[in-house]
């Protein structure tokens, strides 16, 4: 089987979030299953700076507005694998990311300090989607499945079906139409909506601009395009697949998803245990496993407390959080909840970057509870690993969470997560109660109402078990550390989905 994964970012070359982790890890796990899997993405400046991609002689022109834009294919291998990666080069379109000047893959820092989307993002990723399909012909490598991801590749299935699948030569059209499209929604909140004139710039027929196909509230919507024109749709957890069919979570897309519900499924993201395993992790102060987690975590906790400037932490539960500081991650219910558990002696450390309002809120908590709150704004991989290993519990009070990765890291590191029962968190964390403790299935602490009170009570429940019954606490830790949320597990589910698509 041949699978081409199209994405705007892939870890090892370009990353802004979890999408890159998926598109970097899943293809390697698929390759280990014998699938000929390859990746295609833009040649961002960050890709060049790795020094890995090399130019090929393959090039073509892509129509964009009233001009044609050149595109050249570069190639490399995914780091640590033999998986081929292809890069689509046009420096005017994709070579602009320069972090030192506040310029990222999709956004730039404006003069007032806020992040803003590049005004031509619609044109940039229409070019990308069209170029992905042209690259298949240029490479003369014909996949059984084209696996597109998030809004940035949402138009690729449209170009495949409407431009290439309508070729006047029936034999050529048949070759294109044998390619099946899978469209993965990693976060439905990001939809890629642009003003209608982009239809002409992207060379899309106006007959497609209707509420059944590309139009969404008088905009051209890349996400809707991917949903409508793909053979199958999946998202990154079974619960999220159900949630996005409701008005609360669907962000206006619930109607089209309900229409295509027989084509929609959920597969939980995996974890690369090569990077996230306390028994082999070079970033943590002491490695440990199931047999010696008490001693290992105690040493890591001491190092974390020192690193984050905590005082009087001995004998107190230490709560960790690594997250983007945005409303989605539950930061708007953090303040009142934290007053409750910090008032009961807990220590808390937070690593993250995001909304200045939430930074100020956390800084206010640190001032109110001196020595109990450690903050680090920005992102540091070493600190993230030490938080996972040194915390007693991990906090994820998310408003919504399509899949989530940190709760999976926390399980493996013996750090029971306190999570809201939504999306992938609901699918991967089993609440601790009398029954689950007896069954040996408890792995964390789950609350449901999105409120500071419910979050606080879940944390206090976890703190009480930690303080008063270490034997039961150890059962929760061991159960979590024994879970298998590897990419091998997820890749098996994707393999079955691809096979069903090709057979159907």
**Strand count:** 19
Share in helix: 25-40%
Instruction: Describe the main β-sheet briefly.
Output: 9 strands, mixed
| CATH class bucket of the largest domain | Alpha Beta
Question: Which structural category do the helix and sheet elements fall into?
Answer: alpha/beta
Strand order, largest beta sheet:
3-4-5-2-1-8-9-12-13
Query: Strand-residue fraction?
Result: 15-25%
Mean pLDDT: 96
Shape: globular
With helices defined by DSSP (H or I, 4 residues minimum), what is the helix count? 21
Stretches with pLDDT under 50, minimum 5 residues: none
What would the CATH topology of the largest domain be?
Rossmann fold
How many angstroms separate the termini? Answer: 14 Å
Radius of gyration based on Cα positions: 24 Å
The CATH homologous superfamily name of the largest domain equals Glycogen Phosphorylase B
Q: Would you identify the CATH architecture of the largest domain?
A: 3-Layer(aba) Sandwich
How many structural domains in the coordinates? 2
């Amino acid at each position: 089987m041949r699978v081409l994964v199209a994405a705007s970012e892939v870890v090892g070359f370009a990353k802004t979030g979890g999408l890159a982790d998926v598109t970097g890890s899943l293809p390697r796990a698929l390759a280990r299953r014998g699938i000929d899997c390859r990746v295609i993405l833009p040649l961002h400046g960050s890709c060049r700076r790795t020094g890995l991609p090399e130019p090929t002689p393959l090039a073509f022109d892509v129509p964009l507005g009233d001009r044609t834009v050149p595109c050249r294919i570069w190639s490399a291998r995914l780091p640590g694998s033999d998986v081929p990666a292809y890069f689509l080069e046009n420096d005017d379109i994709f070579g602009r990311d320069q972090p030192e000047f506040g310029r990222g893959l999709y956004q730039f820092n404006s003069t007032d300090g806020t992040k803003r989307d590049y005004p031509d993002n619609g044109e940039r990723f229409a070019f990308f989607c069209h170029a992905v399909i042209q690259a298949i012909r240029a490479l003369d490598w014909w996949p059984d499945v084209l696996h597109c991801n998030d809004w940035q590749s949402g138009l690729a299935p449209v170009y495949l079906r409407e431009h290439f699948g309508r070729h006047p030569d029936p034999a050529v059209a048949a070759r294109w139409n044998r390619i099946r499209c899978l469209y993965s929604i990693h976060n439905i909140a990001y939809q890629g909506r642009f003003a209608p004139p982009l239809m002409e710039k992207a060379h899309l027929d106006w007959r497609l601009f209707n509420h059944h196909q590309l139009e969404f509230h008088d905009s051209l919507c890349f996400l809707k395009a991917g949903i409508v024109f793909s053979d199958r749709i999946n998202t990154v957890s079974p619960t999220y697949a159900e949630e996005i069919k409701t008005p609360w979570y669907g962000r206006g897309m619930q109607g089209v998803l309900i229409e295509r519900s027989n084509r929609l499924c959920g597969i939980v993201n995996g974890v690369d245990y090569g990077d996230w395993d306390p028994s082999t992790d070079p970033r943590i102060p002491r490695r440990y496993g199931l047999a010696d987690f008490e001693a290992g975590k105690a040493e890591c906790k001491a190092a974390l407390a020192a690193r984050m400037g905590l005082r009087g932490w001995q004998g107190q539960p230490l709560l960790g959080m690594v997250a983007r500081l945005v409303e989605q991650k539950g930061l708007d219910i953090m303040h009142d909840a934290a007053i409750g558990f910090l008032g009961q002696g807990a220590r808390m450390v937070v690593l993250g970057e995001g909304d200045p309002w939430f930074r100020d809120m956390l800084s206010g908590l640190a001032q109110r509870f001196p020595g109990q709150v450690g903050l680090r704004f920005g992102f540091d991989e070493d600190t993230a690993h030490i938080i996972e290993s040194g915390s007693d519990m991990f906090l994820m009070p998310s408003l919504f969470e399509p899949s989530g990765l940190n709760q999976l890291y926390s399980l493996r590191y013996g750090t029971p997560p306190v999570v809201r029962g939504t999306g992938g968190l609901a699918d991967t964390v089993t609440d601790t109660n009398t029954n689950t403790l007896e069954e040996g299935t408890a792995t964390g602490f789950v609350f449901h109402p999105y409120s500071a009170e419910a979050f606080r009570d879940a944390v206090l429940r976890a703190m009480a078990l930690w303080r008063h019954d270490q034997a039961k606490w150890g059962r929760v830790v061991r159960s979590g550390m024994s879970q298998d949320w590897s990419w091998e597990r997820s890749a098996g589910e994707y393999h079955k989905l691809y096979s069903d698509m090709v057979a159907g």
